[in-house]
Design goal:
mainly beta; 56% strand; elongated; four-stranded antiparallel beta sheet; 119 residues
Length: 119
């Protein structure tokens, strides 16, 4: 069974930083588009940042200039460096992989890590 292991959440003050990590088995990582999502009680789950299947990066408009996604291919990991955090960034952050096979795609989700930003 494929598992995504997330870490790095926590409680911080506005303006501070956190770095999230997500690891997945290399054989799945090498064939996957990888994303970070977040969810709050007030919003549907939204895509925050990611690497598309073609390698391009994307960011939610509200995090551009503050968040940076990176990857370590040998480790099968992605990271989300979050700087200048704001209370609106509060939520549960999920790692999401879409593994691409010849004729199908399989989605995988982590259990989430809580980020709480207080003003």
């Amino acid at each position: 069974q494929v598992q995504l292991a997330e870490s790095g959440g926590g409680s911080v003050q506005a303006g501070e930083s956190l770095r999230l990590s997500c690891r997945i088995s290399k054989d799945v990582f090498n064939r996957s588009a990888m994303y970070w999502y977040r969810q709050t009680p007030a919003k549907e789950r939204e895509r925050v940042a990611g690497f598309a299947a073609d390698g391009r990066t994307m960011y939610l408009d509200s995090v551009k200039g503050r968040f940076t996604i990176s990857r370590d291919d040998p480790q099968g990991a992605i990271y989300l460096q979050m700087n200048n955090l704001k209370p609106d960034d509060t939520g549960v952050y999920f790692c999401h992989a879409i593994a691409i096979y010849d004729s199908s795609q399989r989605p995988y989700w982590g259990l989430g890590t809580l980020v709480n930003v207080s003003s």
